[in-house]
Each structure stands twice: as C-alpha cells, then as structure tokens.
## 1
Amino acid sequence: MILSVKNLCIAIDGKPAVRDLTFSVAAGEVLGVVGESGCGKSMVNMALMGLLPDGVSASAERMEACGIDLLRARSRDWRALRGGNMAMIFQNPMSALNPCLTIERQLTESVLHTHGGMSRASARAEALRLLDRVGIAHASARLKSYPHELSGGMAQRIMIAMAVASAPQLLIADEPTTALDVTVQAQILQLLEEIRQDTGMAMMMVSHDIGVIEQCAHRVQVMYSGQIVESGNVGEVIASPRHPYTRGLVAAQPGRNGQRPKSRLTTIDGSVIPITEEVEGCRFRSRCSRTDHHCVQPPTMQRTEANSHRESRCHW
Amino acid sequence: MSLVSMPSADTNEVVLRVENLCKVFRLPGARGQVFNALNQLNLAVTRGRTLAVVGESGSGKSTMAQLIMKLQRPSAGRVSLRMDSGMRDVADLPARDLYRKVQMVFQDPYASLNPRQRIWRIVSAPLCNYENLSRDERRQRALHYLHQVGLGETQLHAFPYMLSGGQRQRVNIARALATNPEILILDEPLSALDVSVQAQIINLLQDLQRDLGLTYIFISHDIAVVRHFADQVLVMKSGDMVEWGDVDQVLENPSQAYTRQLLGSMPGRPRDLPVRKELINVMAGG
C-alpha cells in the first residue's frame, strides 16, 4: 500500500470534524473521493500532506504513506515527502502559481528540490523535458512566461509538471479540473491518466463531479459531513449506489437514470449539517427518506455484498 | 445559418431577436489591435422556451448577454425586443422599459448580493425604479417573490452571509422576478453550486417557467444540464456561432465537428473509448 490510513480524525478547535476515516491506496491505483462542499475532503488532503492550519489537529491509529509513518514525521521528514514521494495539485492553478516569478524559476525550484546538486543548466533541461511531458508546445519560450500569460489549462499543466518533477509515488489531486472548461478538463484528465500509466504512481482524485470520478478512478469513496458513507468499485457504486446519500447524489445529476428532459430531478431535501455539529445516530438521518428506529444508533461501515469490497454506512 | 422565418402569431412568437450582432474590443497597449468577442450573431428566441448557449470561456457567451442587457454597446448589428408596440430596437428603449422585460441572474451567488443589505432590501430594490413604496410595502413585495422561489419569512431579514449557496441563488432569482420580466438571462446560474443543490434550482427554474410563462436564455457549459433543461441550443466558439437548433437535433446529431468535440469532452464516459481519445487529441493539437 502506498497510503494506508486507519481511523483518521480531524478536529477544528477541539470539535470533531472528520470522523474515523479508514482507507488505503495501492500502487498505480486511482482512488476517487466524492463529496459536496463542507464534507471535509480538502481537510483530509491537508492532513495527508501535513499542511493543516493552526487550530486544526489530526489524530489516527495509523497514517502511513510511502513507507513513512506520518504520525511521527518531523518537519524534516515532511519536507522530504512533499515534493518527493508525495505531491499535490490544486483546484485553481492560477492562484497556486506565484504571479511574480517566471515559470522557469518555479519549475526549476521543484527540479532542484528533487535533485539537490544539479547544475542550473541541467535543471533547465529537466524543466524543458517536463514541459514537453505535460504537452506544452514551445517549451523554451514558455519557460520565460509569467503565470498571467498562461491560460487556465496551461497553468494546470505546469502545476502537474511541478508535481511530477520528483516522480512521486502518490499524487493528490484536489479538484484539479473544476476551474477549467470541459474540453480542457478532458485533456487534463487524459494527461494525468497517461502519466499514471507511464510511471505507475497512485492518485487520490478529489472531486464533487461524479462524472470526473467515474472516468478516471478505479475505486470511489463518498464522503458526507466528515465521514465516508460508501466505498467500492467506481462502476458498481455509481450503477447501483447503496447509501441513500450516494443514491441521491447520483440521481440529482441530469441525464442519469434515463430521466426524461424537463422532468423533475430528484433532490436531497434539506442541507448539509455543519461538519462540526454533533448528531445522535446517523449524520444523514435528517435528510434521509427512509429512517427508522435503527438510525438513532451511529451506523458503521458494513459490507454490502458477500464477496465484494463494497461498504456502506447504512443499516438498510 | 439562416434566420428563422417570421413566426406565426402566438405559438412561436419571437420575443427577442438578435441580428448580425458584433462586438469588437480594442486591446490595451498595442495600437490598432482588436479582439473580436462576437461575430455576426443571429438568433431568435421564442416565448416560453429555453435557449441554451454553450461554449468554452472566451466564446462570447457573456458578451452576448451584456449586449442584450445594454451593459455594453454593440459594434454592429442590433438586438430587438417584443414590446406591446411590436419589435423595438433595444438601443432605442429606455433602460427602465428594457429591465421590466428582461432580467439577469448571475453566476456567483456569493458575489452578486450586497453583503451589507438585508434580503428584503435586495429583492425589492428593482421595484424602487418603478414605484414609490414604503418600507412595509417593500417587505411585503419581497416576501411575495421569496415565496415564489421557495424561501420565506425566515430569510426576509437575513443578510446574505447567513444563507447557503443555494438559498443565495434563490434570492438572486427572486430579485430577477421582482419586475415581472418575461425573459430571464441566466448566466451560468448553477456552476457555483453543489450537485444536489443544482438539481433543486433546475426544478425551481422549470416550475417558474411553467407557472409564469418565462422565456430563458440559459448560458452554461454543462451539456447534461442543457440536454435536460433547454429547448434550443446555440453552440459558440471564439465569438462565432457554430451551430443553432433544437436540443435533440444538435446534441444527438451534431452537424459541426466542434459540437462533437464538446460532447466528447463530457466526463463520465468509460475509459479509453477510442472516439473520445481521438477527439481529445484533435483538440490538444488545435
């Protein structure tokens, strides 16, 4: 396993927010994480990268990445991990790049971080190779550009180049295509898939878009209000979701389940309960259409089929 | 691309017509350099129907909306609107008459509401251009429109920060409804919302259209939503009109290569579908 997490809990100002997350990612595998805003997706990423802000703390029974125990990692270990075996790309590539520095400066920084004693000239050559790898034309001219001269798609390609500079074993992609046009999104997803096939890196792909996850992930885990509510093979989960929340999420997408144009879409009533709010029993209970007396007990993840790896946090 | 023939009296009544509409922006700095945001756009919008406008960023979708709303002046061509007296050029219409007929809902529900005003004030603000209303009357009217979008008394005195994204977008729609318009221009009204909330807003827009007979111009980049929601679709690229027609026809049987590329880019299809890969490579090259 490249990444193995057991009972990860994250608290904001001492209040539990993310609760008992257990999951793992194998080498070369793409794990999709789906959830709506405020479900804790990004906080999990930050915890994995050791980037949680002040006042937010993480605890776990186990949290290991690339053979390193993240629970005991000191700042030196973190520095070696980030931009080493683990890398991350973000939702908005424009705000992730430094507007005052050229692409060359920013890209060679990643290269030099990986290859300590490299000369400036070879770092530049490596940067050119990376730009070429992520499909940027006229690479040497692009090195002189500043971020404002790039389109969103090109900026995201450069973020990917910086991330894969160190040939990471795990890439965390936090909504990498949300800010992009659909055609550009398709190109970026294709690029990530190509790199994954070439290098065998594992990916954790976080998105609110079920379509994106369906296209690029092998397994999916659905998050709701700080918990994993369903997990399993991507095709199976989307084709026949077990948890009422996943069911609602899939049905809310136009064009799924053969809805007729102009028909009423299925919605999930109510709104997401704040992630730090304490709830008795199931956290989805207040919005669920099929609740009974079992639902006042906190549900656990249960296997839904005898011989598959699908799990759902619902007693139904 | 041909203009639709003159419509028959009521069933296919054209309420908005765009003819040879162009917008050229002068680029800053370099002298004489221009950017063609919109080239020779022709289209007609039918009463009670939804026209979807799809295209990538920079395709001219929002420029079109701004020209219709007179927020920009066209470089050439014209927009005409059906008034009681017949089709009238928007350029000759006083703003107050135009905004009675056409209203707009913006993309970002977080940025398009004044954070320092209470909801009743925001929703009833458009009315103050037409009538002299007391505070109580304004609140009453605001409540009426909030009811139409599924909100109520609880939100009347709230500030925007107290509301969720979906509720804010409902407030935006309520404000647009306040002048009893016939046409709503919806500029990516769903893209800032979560999937389950998107579905609620789509349902609301469909209900309002049915109950109030509204005409929608729906700007979007989400083909699945367009297929579900629209009657006609206009595909745009770099300011040019690529294709225009009924949704079934254009999306099921696109005549233009670009429309096919756009459809092929929709996420969620199986991996390694050969057609898909080929399309993506074409686009990456072009």
## 2
Amino acid sequence: MRYLAGEYEVIVIGAGHAGCESALASARMGCETLLLTINLDMVAFMPCNPSIGGPAKGHVVREIDALGGEMGRNIDRTFIQMRMLNTGKGPAVHALRAQADKFEYQHLMKKTIEETPHLTLRQGMAEELIVEDGKCVGIVTKSGAEYRAKAVVVTTGTYLRGKIIMGELMYESGPNNQQPSIKLSASLKEHGLELIRFKTGTPPRVHKDSIDFSKTEIQPGDEKPKFFSHETKTSDIEQIPCWLTYTSEDTHKIINDNLHRAPMFSGAIEGTGPRYCPSIEDKIVRFADKPKHQIFLEPEGRHTSEYYVQGLSTSMPEDVQLGILRTIPGLEKVEMMRTGYAIEYDAVIPTQLWPSLETKVIDGLFTAGQINGTSGYEEAAGQGIIAGINAARKVQNKEAVIIGRSQGYIGVMIDDLVTKGTNDPYRLLTSRAEYRLLLRHDNADLRLTPLGYEIGLITEERYKQFMMKKELVELETERLRSTKVKPEEMNAMLEMAGSAPMVQGGDALSLLRRPEVTYQHLESVLPSPYELSEEMKEQVEITVKYAGYIEKQLLQVERLNKMEKKRIPSDIDYSDVRGLASEAKQKLDVIRPLSIGQASRIAGVTPADISILLVYLEHYNRVTAARGSQ
Amino acid sequence: MIHDTIAAISTAVGEGGIAIIRISGPDAIIGADHIFASKISLKDAESHTVHYGHITDPVSGEKVEEVLVTLMRGPRSFTGEDVVEINAHGGVIAVRKVLDLVLQQDGIRIAEPGEFTKRAFLNGRIDLMQAEAVIDLIRSKSDRAFTVARKQAEGLLSRKIKALRGTVIELLAHIEVNIDYPEHDVEEMTSAYIREQCLLAIAELDKLLKTASEGKILREGIMTAIVGRPNVGKSSLMNVLTQEEKAIVTDIPGTTRDVIEQFVTINGIPLRLLDTAGIRETSDVVERIGVERSRDALQGADLILLLLNHNEPLHADDRELLQQLEGRQVIVIVNKNDLPGRLELDEVAGIMPTAPIVHMSVLQESGLDQLEKSISDLFFEGGLEAADLTYVSNVRHISLLNRAKSSLEDAIEATYSGIPIDVIQIDARLAWESLGEILGDEAGDSLIDQIFSQFCLGK
C-alpha cells in the first residue's frame, strides 16, 4: 500500500561510503536529509579489503577531510594499522594507508550519522523515482513508503541488479549476500539514463587460527602513525600486523587445471572488470611467466578471527578456491570462512552527468560512487561528499561546487568520469593527475579547507586553526628567506647533513633547497622563534625544496585556468557552429562541457575544433553584448 | 594557451620573392632579439619600425641570413599582440634555418593552422564579418595538415618515433607502478636506470635531428607526379628537370617499370618529382606492378604534370587519364611540338578548362622556361599550399623533437641532484607528450594501459 511517509529536502539512497558522506554533508549544511539503506546493519560496510588509503586514494581521504567530510575522522579512530607508503619518494606521493577494524568502522559511522541533526537514517529499499516535469521529487520504497524531497542522491554501489558468481554457481545478490536492488534499475532507465554492466570481485576470508604465520613475513605498522584527519593529533590505538606470503607453483597448477571452470573464461561473466584489480586466475593467465604472486594476509578487525587474503580475488568454484588457498605457504591447513566471488552490477554511464554529479536528463537527481563506474571506498566517498554538497546547494539555490583538476584528486576523478567516461571500473591513480606535485597528502587542507569553510562544513574553530597554520608556515618561510647566514655558522651542520660546505654567505632558505639538508638540520642551528608543529615544519620544507618544480606546475595551472574560465553558455547549439567536425559536434552535444577547458579534454575533439569553438564563442558574446546594449 | 608565442613562415617560399617569418605573442620581441644581430636592440626599438641586420645562431655565432625585421607592438598589430616579422631572401634552406632558430627560443612554438588570424579575431582586430572566414580557414588548413600528418604517420619517421615513445613509456610505467603500487614486488626504479633509459632515447633523438639538419627537408617538397602514356617523354622530362641521367631513357614503351623519385628546386620551390611508369593496360606482370605503383603515386600527388604527344591524336588511355585527373592540380605538357601537330587540343582544354597548357620539346629542351613559370605561378597563387603545410609540419616535428630532447636532459640532470623519481617523472612525461604531439596521438589513457599491460597488479 503506497502512503506518504515523509517530506525532506534531500534523500540519499544507499548508506555505503558514498551515501554516508552525501547524507552527512547535506545534513550538516542544514538540509533535512533522509538516508535510506536496504539493511541498517550494513552502514559504511567494507565488502572487500579491510583497508582505506594508499596512493591517490589516501589523498582523496585527506581531501574529504579538508572539505569537512567524515571518512578521515572515522578511520583515524578505528584503524588497527597505519602505514605511510612511498616515504622514499617525493612528498607528493607519500601516501597514508590504514588497515581498518571493519566492524568498528561501521559502528562508529552509524553512530555519527544517528547523532547528526537534520539527518534521518531509515531501513528501506528504494524501488522507484518520482519524477515530475523532468524533476526528481522523491522516491517510493518496496514497502510503499513515498518520500518527497527536492533532490535525490543515488549511491547504490554494487547492489543494482547485483549478481554473484562463484564457479558454476550464480545468483541474484548484493555484496556479501545482501538483498540486491532489482527494480530501481528499471526506474532509472525509464527516466532516460543509460546503464552499463560492470564486474568486480573479492577474495576468500580465512580463519586466523588455521594460518601458520611462521611461514610468512610480518608487515608491521609505522611506529609513529600519521593520521588522515587534519583534526586528529594523537592516538593510543594498539596496532596489529599484516603478513606477507606468496603463491606457489602448485597454486598456478591448480588454477591452470581448473580454468575450464572459471567463469572469467567460460563467458558466464558479461560485465567488464577492473584492469587494476584482476582476479588471480586472470593474473596467472596474463602473466604466465611470473613464477609467484604476493599474497597479503590482513586481519578484518580486532574482535574477529577472519583474515582477508589480499591478492587472491577469484570467482573460481568453492572447492577450487579451497584447493588454491592450501597451496600457499602458511595456508596449508587453512580453514576458509567465506568464499570469494565475482559480482556484476548496473552502473550509470558517467558522461550523462554534469561535473556537479547531477544527471543531465533528470533535474535534481544526483549519482555518486560505484554506480558512476568507479571502484573503491575512497573514490565513492569523494564523489559522495560532492554530490551531497551539490544536492544541498541545489535545494538552497546556490551554484554547484566543482573541484578543479589542479585542486584535488576528487576533481581529477570527477572530470575524468564526466568528460571521458570509463570503459572499466575506474580507480584513481596518482598518474591520472597532471599536477601531482601540487596535489599532495600534506597540503590537502591548504587546497580545500577554505572551500569547506565557505560551504559550511568546516567549523569556525577548525578554520581558525587552519588559518594559524597557514600564517605560521608563511612567517617561517619568510624568516628563512631573510636570515643571512655565514659559512662558519653553517658548515658544521652542513657536514653533518652530508652536504658541501658554504664558501660565502647566503640566506637560510637556499640551504634548505639542498636535497641533503632537512628542516631538522637547519633548525638545529637556527631555531625558530615561532611555535611550529611537525606538520608546519614539513610544509615549510616541502614548499622550499620543490619550489622550482612547484612553480613550473603552477604556471601550467594558470594556463589551464584561462581555458577553464572560458565558459560555454548552456544554450549553445552545436549543430549551429559552422566548421566543427561532425565527430566533435556529436561528442560536444553529448558531454555538453561547461568550459573550453573541459571541451578540450573530450576524446575526438581536436585543437582545430577548439579554435573554431573559441571563435564561435567570441562571435556569440559580441552578438549578445550588442543585443544587450540596444 | 592563448597567451603563448607562436611563429610560422607566413608567405610561401620562392626564389627572388621574399619570405616572411612572423612571430606573435609576449615573447616575440625578446625571442627575436636573441637571434638578431643589429645596431639596435629590438627591445628598445619603437613600434612600427624596420631594422636591418643578420639572423645569427646564438650558439655557433654563425650568420644565417641577412634580413629586414619589422617590429609592431601590440595592440597595434595584425594579431593585437607584439609582432615581429623577419623578412628573409627566400632560399628554402636559409628560411627554414631562421624559423628553426626562432622556435628554439624560450616560449615560442610553431603556429597552428590559421592561428594568427584566430588571434587577430579573438583580440578584436578583425570584425564580425570575417569570423566565418576565420573558421573556414582553420577548418581547411587543419584538414589538410591532418592529411599530411597522416601521410607521414605511415612513414619511417613515425615508426622511429613510436619506438622512441615506447622506450620512454616503459620507463614512465615503471616509475608509476613504483608510486601507485609501492608494496608490489616490482623492481625499484633507480636513478641509474632512469639515466640509462633517457640516454638511450636521446641517442635516437640525436640521430633523427641530425638527418633533419642535413637539409632532408627537401624530401618533403611538393609531391609532383609526371604522368602520361608510355614513351611520351616522361623520363626525358625528369632528366631535363634534374639534369641527371637517373631514369633509363629508351624508345621502347614500358621501359620505366617503377616509380623514380628526384628532388629538385624550381625557382626556389622544392619539388619531389615522381617519374611514373607509363600508365596503360598491359599483360607484362612486372610492368603491371609498375603501373599500379604509378596509379598510387598519382593519388598522393599535390601536382600532376600530364604529358601528351603533340604528334599523335588523343588515345583512349589519354582520355581515361584526363577523366581521372579532373579536379586535380594539373599542368598539361604538350611534348614533341617540333613534330607535326595531330593532337586535339580543343578537346583537352574542354576537359581541363583551368589547367595551364605548356608546349615544349623535351628532347630539344625548349619550352622549359614556360613550364617553370607555370609551376611558380601556381605556387604563388596559392594553388599549391599543401606543400607549404608539409614543410611547416616538419619544422614542427623538429621543434617537438628538440623539446623532447631537452626534457630528457632535464630528467638526467635531476637524477644527479637527488630529486625523487616522481618529480623526475614530470620531465620524462613531457618528453613523451612532445613525441606524442608529432604523431597526433592522445597522450591520456595509454600510460595507464601500459602500466596494466606491463605489470601484474591486483588485490
């Protein structure tokens, strides 16, 4: 029986990593928000690896935090291991990665959501969109509850027509045997959205007591852990190690002997899987000459004996999976607790979205996360917060917020998705960013916290602290620049640092530019009059040391921004633009880029097309201006 | 990128005529000043003045060309930006050398087709009425440049560049995988390895650049096909034009069984002459291959010299050729005019109303002046623009090769000063992108493809 169950300003469908950030952002911006989930026990659930962060992904978590999102704070309080990766490389690619207690992570997120004002968390399966005059104004659940709102955010992850595949076994299911969402797909299609079929997978889980850890290598966390949130200063969490082992010749033999039973190769799987995350059978076929593959054993939480077997994602039949596991050193007598599987699901072709993540065909309908063709908790959460912000801003009649490619990995990801689309589940990589040196782990707050404050997601208190940090970093850099030093004062320190002695006087800043000289070295002879945190010192050192390269990238960004600032009017009719190649016309008409910058990134749009578009726009503007002045 | 500086040869190159190299943008004056030896520095010169001097290679000190340089400061210039025009004498090699030097200056790149006019429009120097003309110009020039680029992309140069890019991208993918999969058991990238790979690539680049500087540019002259029925005098014409006995001349029809290429300069215009096997129906297998090749050469030619025999009536093969050549850039040469005339000239003029007709006797080398005049007329009237574009696109290649090389040198230098690999990667990536611009490839996603095909990654 259909009945009116409530009126809200924003409805978020799905309470995974995208949905949680969406709903929290919207509610914190003052919108009455409803967060619907098929199963309340699955809020912020991690269906695959129990970890958050790593290169590019960790950067996104920092960015979410800088904007005022939740993921960083949540993992900082629920991790069981923290590691900074890439420390031997440049500061831009230092990347934090946490192993999560996946249960605690869920519980804490659920608690935060429950305690957030303006936010209602409810169990229910959305099955139908209510669209009136091209606007999405609500949804109807399986139980007949009709919820009304001014904007709807769909974050269905892998639930849309989800299908689990395990060897010969196949059945309709969401992740981890949850109920799939079957009818919503049809409703999306009915309202004009085009869907594609993607696939992903997860490895088996095993019992800790059946692992012989003596045959594996220990992978401990960092002694002095760093944190994702700019708010977290300390932690007394006790860390738990992970373990490393390898596949053996026998592993490869079992897989090869059973390839005829692998749905990957039998044609049973129709969805496109991610390139970066192939299953073990895929790896062994494609890289046949590689004698062994790494396998990491990762605890799923503090109060469970389940271990995640990273590197062994597979959709082989259950009996083969057990066989495979037992060929791995340390796992000879292992007990499998959950079977690995592949899952197929519907996703929205992301070029149907504006950069705000609102769909072009239905006003007020936003999508975020895996439904947009991405994969990964961090990618989902990064889109989630943007969709939530923009849904709320839509309700409040404010202009959409778009993060630029030079401002954050979130911007790179969304621009890639809506401008180029994706042929397989999209994962962020640092190599996707052209301004990697500017998009660092350490400066996420400098890049995005002012925006978060403006939006209303950063508190006064936090903003004040941020401004103080910024000012102190500038003061300290200026101090080093204006401090003249003599060789006799510095040479002992330089020798310690393994750097060449000074011959004549200079300023302290240029000493810090030397690769061997750290801020700590300099501080030992030139202590700062300011009270600086480790974070601030790091910031000073990085900006000074890489100034040359950073400036080069800033120059490129300045050029890019000129193109980004050339807006394309929304009412442009590309069929009217004389001289455009027909391929360009068609692509431009589908993507409807907001700026010349975005237009130039569309595949199939040539520099000549861009030139022609520029000339057309100039023409257009002059005509419009002439009309206006009459 | 509207505010960088562009340069190009803005008039066709011809002997006796003057070639103008135009530079426009914020770095135009500084850039030109750096290679211009004169009594006055352009930086201090007033706008709208002309200066005498020499274009000099700042590295070797060699005087390249005696020139007049015109200076126009923005906004009072054609493009609305600072503009420098270098008037050179027009010898192909010298003008090209001047442009090369200009493009080696900081911040100056080769102009895209129609770009000067585009800037003029965007800076409000051209009125609305002309906007459509600008669009047509960009479209037609780009399409032609694209055709030219595609022709070259099938050639040897592109194969070499692809191989070079392959070396660089493997290096890039290796660096990227170290960064994005730090815990993966992939060999760590070392400075020594990066240096080794960069040096390998630079050695290859040097080889390419050396051939470019040896004046091989002439290879890219106007593709000119000499066609006609067997024994009408094609090889003899070729020999006359090249003053060499390269083609075998006999009076047996079907002697030329392959396409012979020669490079000549006529009134300063570079021509790439193709002597084609006589086009006719034949049962001889070897000759038939030659005929096929001739037809191919014909398809790709910018200019066609069609030979007809003054002494014979039009043959069915002649008529077929005439039909095929409709709409192409053709000069009709009526050979053997020392013999009695039996050719139906009216019919020829009827089929090809716009083609110039030149009477000559190749054997007696008479009428040659008229042929040369016809070729240069066509050239200067703009009918043979394609060759000019081929030429420019080569200068573009050279400047991109140079850019790739200097990026790789930066990368090598960085490895010596303890710069981390992800920062060195920036330079290596620039080199890869510059090489990609030559091929017109999309740089974007293929690095990611490379990472996943080169390394076994996963969770």
## 3
Amino acid sequence: MKIVYQNIHLPNSHTLAVYEANGGYQAVLKAFELGSDEVIEEVKRSGIRGRGGAGFPAGLKWSFIPKNDPRPKYLTCNADEGEPGTCKDRDIIRYDPHRLIEGMIICGYAVGIQQGYIYIRGEFYRETERLQAAIDEAYAKGYLGENIFGRGSRFHLAIHRGGGAYVCGEETGLIESIEGKKGQPRLKPPFPANIGLYGCPTVINNVETLASVPTIIERGGAWYGALGVAKSSGTKVFSVSGHVNKPGNYEVELGIPLKTLLEEHAGGVRGGWSNLKGVIPGGSSSPILPAEICATITMDYDSMAKAGTMLGSGAVIVIDKSVCIVRAVARLSRFYRHESCGQCTPCREGTGWLSQIMTRMEAGQGTHEDIDLLLEICANIGGKTICALGDAAAGPVLGAIRAFREEFIYHVEHGRCMAG
Amino acid sequence: MNERSTISTGVTPRFSEEALRQIETIFKRYPAERRQSAVMPILHLAQREFGGWLSRESLDYVAELVAMPPIRVYEVATFYTMYNLKPVGRYHVQACTNISCWLCGSDQVMDSLKRKLKLSVGETSEDKRFTLAEVECLGACVNAPMMQINDDYYENLTADKVAEIIDRLP
C-alpha cells in the first residue's frame, strides 16, 4: 500500500498536471464539503502520528489550536530532514510536491490558518527549486493566494530555507529560525499550539504527515486507521541505508516485521541475514537493536518503545558484522557534539565529553571506568535539557553499551576493534 | 557546538538591482512587522552574490537592510554552518562522512577527494578552484556515500567516480 509515494514513479510526477490527472486536489474539495471540524475528526480517526520522529497524534495537535483567538495562526511544515539516515521527505518534495501543498491547504482550512511556511533544509537547493515551482503553479491556478478555489478565503505558502543546523528540526528551534534568529529551542510549555511562530498559535507537522492528509480525507480516517497495527496506523516510509543489497525508501504499512522490510524490500542484508550485527531502527538517535532482536521485532511505535528504542523518523540503518560498533558510535557522538546548539550545559558539555571519551575508546586508549563514565554522562544529559538533542546524543551510546558492551571491553583490553 | 568568527575585508559590497528586487519579494513572505525573518534568505542571497562567502562588511550591509543590530546578524551567520565566513573556492566540495555514508565507504571517497584535489579537509586550493569540506548528514542516505558540490548532490559514489566527477567540472 502506497500513500505518500503513490505517484512518485510516474513521469513528471512533480507537475500539477500529473498530480491532477491522478486525482490531485480533489481531497481539498472534499474537505470543504466536510467542514473544518469534520476534517479534524477524520484526521483524528485516522490515528496518524507525527512522522518526523516524535510520533504525536496529528489530529490531536490540530485540535489544540485555540478557536476564536484574535491572533493570526500559522502552519509550519518541517522539511528540515536532518536526522542521520533519513531521506524520505526529500523524495516527496522532489517527486510529489503538490501532495504536500494539498495537505497543507487542507490543514490550513481545518484549523483556520491563512499562512503556511515550509522550512526546508538549506542543502536541499534543487529540491527547493522543485517545491517553489510547484507553489508557483498552485498560485497560478488559484489554489493558493487570496481567494483559494474561488471560495473567498486565503491561504499563502512560502518556503524558508535553513542554514545547516540539525537542531532546527526541533520544532521550536525551527520557529526561532523562521523568526530570523539562532535556532535555539524554546522552553516548553508554552507549546507552539498556543505560543508558536511570532507568538501565535502554530501547527508544526512533518512533510510525510502532511502529505498523508489528502489520502486520509479522500478515503476517510477509518480507512486509513485500518492500515497498519493498533496505535500505529497507516503507512510509513522507511529509509533503509547501510549494509543491505538494495538501500532505498520503502513505504509499507506500520507493524511490518523488520526482517521482512530488510529481506523482502531492501534486498536482504549484505552477506545474508547471518551477517547482520545490528540495526539502528529510527534514525541515528535511536538505540541500536542487536541482530537477535531484529529477527522478530515489528516496525511500530509500541514495539520499538518496548525494546528500548524508537521508530523515530523511520531511518533504518543496517550494520553488518564487519563494523566496529565503538567506531560507529564515536562517529555519531562527534555529530551530536557538532550539532549541540550550546544553550543547555548538560548537552553542550555532555556531548563534548561523550565525543572525547568515545574517540579515545576507539583509539584504544579507553579504560574500564570510561564505560561507566559514558553511562553516567548519558544519565546526566537525559531529561535535563530544553530539547531532545541531549537525549538524542545519549541514545546511540546507551544502546551500544547495552547491546555490545563486550566490544567496548575488548577495545579497552586489546586497544583495537573486535571487528573490521 | 562550533566556534566561528567573522573576517573583515574593508570593502562594503552592494547588491545588484536584480538582487534588490528579489529581496523585496523575500520580505513579502513574512508579516510586514517581521522583517528580521528575512535575514536568513537574504544572507543566502548575499553569499551567492558576493563570491560564495560573507565578510564582516557583508553582514553589516545585510543588518542595515533588515534593520537588525549587526550583532544579531553575526549570531545568525555564525550559528548556521552553511554561511561561509571565510573565502571558499569556486567549487565547494562537501563530502558527508556521517553514519550511512561511512558504512558505505565515505572513507574511501574522502581519501580519493584528498588525493585528487591535493587538499586536506578545510583547505582551499591556491588557484581558488576548490575547497574541500567534511559535512554532517545531508539527507541522501539511501544513495550513500554522497557529496555536494555547490548546489548539486552527487550520490552512490565510489573512489573512482569522485575523481571522474572532479575532472568533468567545467
């Protein structure tokens, strides 16, 4: 079942003509017939949870926006796509941008929003060109602007390009960035639903979430909700990278066994299933799962949480037995150190320490005490910062020590990698 | 966190008429009283117009256009790594070495780039043709390893392929 990727293999799928020839911009007309409250109900009924990483129910998020509030309201689409391993939104943007635009128009109508922004990572220059061309087409057709679909109501859409800061994928960092500031996340509460962009009520959704909305409206929330499994309804795009024979973005129903995703969709683990060491299942922040758990686990929010990791952005990073886990984690720790925005001491200092200790561990200069020290630093970061970047930095370290502690010990005792 | 500082050239740049028209459309994307929101797009534009990087004077000029205190513009420019605060070559070669690319051979890609360009990471060639940079994940992980040269992505790289790509640049 393909929803957000249903058209991406068609020639010229990025154009308005192809989108409309395949039923595009019909869902928004249906939304107008349903009425705004019923649109929100349909999205709630679908059970769709935020596809960016946090997994918060999208319909609920929309319903938190205060009604009869005199302030303007904003919709911001998170297209920052920065979580290492994740590249699913890029294909929606470059191959089916109108699906995203239609989703945003529907959200704008349902929630009473007249201005939307798409915050796209700055490096996606060509993708930005594609998206801007689609927005221009939608304006020319009267689907965006002062009098959308001839209904006398207004919805404007603009792109805001980021500048290469991972932390701007965090929703309040993103808001700060649109406001023309450093992307340092805000304390919550207040939540963006009340005080978001320019101090006004703001909905923030991921690209994949918004691109799912036209189909939810077209087919109905109940139809969408029947896909997938309980509490993880619908489809999800998994970006499968690393040691598989066919890396790629695969849209499948949630609840699919990880082994099926890898073996039947991604061409199998390089060198066969027995060569699998572990999988980072939901982007670089999610703790790694060792091969024995990968054999049985299913890809849904609850199963992942139960296994002590998360579905996150759906970036499935496959690691075979040739890889030294200590070196892999050292690389990730360097990333988080680089991307910490610096405002919270536990994260700013903690990511620095994690990176330093992981680097010396990798170089064969670690001690047994360092392993416990790493765990202690993680404990001192987790839950003690304004945003989740600190927890994200701790995730890979905690996961690796939990699943592969013997490799850390081997590094300490032999001064080199166990593998590779 | 990164420590980045600005460099003064003593020369104040000026936007072209065409760029100034673009800036007017940038301001229109945001509420009239929120001109500061335009600072990032205008910095991006300034970098394209002023030779691929932003001097202290370029930042001051943007501050004036956006009516922001210069220090606020310095904060933004130093926070976001895509703003180059020192000169870069005509081709800014940025290779990703993060997890997915590393698993798929970014070490070999980086070695090949270093050999081919005769540069270390962070260096610019004497003829100002190339700057070599190591970057964090650019979001093309299923086609790893990858690199970006100016506005374009190059994916599914191998050591040989990157050498060819460099040779083919105009």
